[in-house]
Amino acid sequence: MNEYESLNHALIDAVKALGGSKVVAARLWPEKDPLAAQRHLLACLNEDKPERLSPDHLMLLLRMARDIGHHGAFAHMSHMLSYAEPQPINPRDELTELLREYREMRRGETAVAERIERAINSLKAVAA
Fold it and tell me: Could you tell me which of 89, 96, 25 has the C-alpha nearest to residue 61?
């Protein structure tokens, strides 16, 4: 179900959930004066203004929203692009999967190291 009229409306909702435009703008543009950053963010979210979020700033805003469990803007994008509703990955599940992959990789490295050691020992035996 799509509850937003536009992506900008979905992003505005995400900004509100994150504590408001002043808080979000300071995280998006820490190098700017806080009030200038806030004005820029408000202009980016105003459909009547030419300013727009860069792809990197959009991704950062979506990540920030995901981190607090607010998925409306990304769900809106998925709906508008005819994708299935997104399912966020539980950080614990992601960590478990990454650790499993890491252990498998290390096992493979150990096996290769053992083969290298055997090959070196074979060469030493032939040379002796």
Answer: 25
